Amino acid sequence: MATQPERLMAEMGARARAAQRLLAAAPTATKADALRAMAAAIRADAADILAANACDMAGADALSPAMRDRLKLTEARIEGIAAALEQVAALPDPVGETIRAWRQPNGLTFRRVRVPLGVIGIIFESRPNVTADAGALCLMAGNACILRGGSDATESSRAIHRCLLAGLDAAGLPADAIQLAPTADRAFVGAMLGASGLIDVIIPRGGKNLVARVQAEARVPVLAHLDGNNHVYVDAAADTDMARAIVVNAKMRRIGVCGAMETLLIDRAFSDARALLTTLLDAGCECRVSSELIGLDARLKPVAPEDWDTEYLDAVCAVGLVDGVEGAIAHIAAHGSAHTDAIVTEDAAVAERFLAAVDSAIVLWNASTQFADGGEFGFGAEIGIATGRLHARGPVALEGLTSYKTLVMGSGQVRRG
């Protein structure tokens, strides 16, 4: 006998499937109109969204500083949400795009085209902006979505969702295209994970515990990312001023984002490790360093073995020396999470070796790891950073929310033999 969460999931899934069939055929202009109307509604309701967020923040005392930062909305962040909706509206529509076309000797012609994934379930924690980002990207890619936000962001997500519904209504698109779970019951997450035939893909966006539960229990395909145990490697040939700027930005710009640097690796041949450490310490970062570095500053603390594998999401950083680029590559292979890693160097050959050998979703040369963001990639927004090796990798945006089918055109051919 179905439980109440399972019945609710079945009802929402059926409505989402019906809405998705309409979205799959919706003109690009109509989808773009909906997104622009959503952006306008976000701006018009900014005061209400801030008030809703204040209610969420008032109950968030138990959250870590990083999670509170993810939860908090400001006027600037609300404007960023609206701007992201407009950016997605301006992007090329992937639905129907020809990926490849070819012809066989028997005269059959083939055309592989992008199609929506279908109904996407998105489970996220603390980040009310995901409500808009996920809804916008799914809509433009022709997918319906069912969103289940974290209980700590309930009021913020509901306020943003009302703006999304207003945009759908203004463009004449079905409200069931973007549904927000009306319950904070954790059993509803289980119902989503078991909703084979109702949901085509599950995307979790949150911490290790959430992702682990989704991967363990899901009966539908999962597009997930692991933690962001990200590295910056400062090579012997790095410019010191550039390295200092990149390192402090990668760690301290926003400590709670998944693109933040968690480990700094320094070539033993680099001339001024002290400068890098002093920059981090002066910025308020606790540095846990290997024994060779501990005497460079009284504020330094010894690193523990587990620090190399830790995503702090805090003003804490592990720091170690390595033997050149090969040492950095080996360390990242042993301790990294395949999310985002960077090299700082003026030696192009060394950089190319790092870029080729580090098997992460995002690998940067002379740039901060904080660019691990769909908006910075020109995608308008993202649903998450996928660290797996199937289907989509890195910031998941429009193309990552599509599959493909192959259209075959003939002139009466039949297969013999």
Describe it for me?
The protein is of the alpha/beta class. The protein folds into 2 domains: about 5-225 and about 395-410, 3-Layer(aba) Sandwich (Aldehyde Dehydrogenase, Chain A, domain 1); about 230-370, 3-Layer(aba) Sandwich (Aldehyde Dehydrogenase, Chain A, domain 2), CATH 3.40.309. It is about 40% helix and about 20% strand. The chain has helices at about 5-25, 30-45, 45-60, 65-70, 75-90, 130-140, 155-170, 185-195, 210-215, 240-250, 275-280, 325-335, 350-355, and strands at about 100-105, 110-115, 120-125, 145-150, 180, 200-205, 230-235, 260-265, 285-290, 300, 315-320, 340-345, 360-365, 385, 395, 400-410. Strand 12, helix 13 and strand 13 form a beta-alpha-beta unit. Helix 5 (about 75-90) runs parallel beside helix 6 (about 130-140). The longest helix is centred in the N-terminal third of the chain and has 21 residues, at about 5-25.
Task: Identify the notable features of this structure and list them briefly.
alpha/beta; Aldehyde Dehydrogenase, Chain A, domain 1; Aldehyde Dehydrogenase, Chain A, domain 2; 2 domains
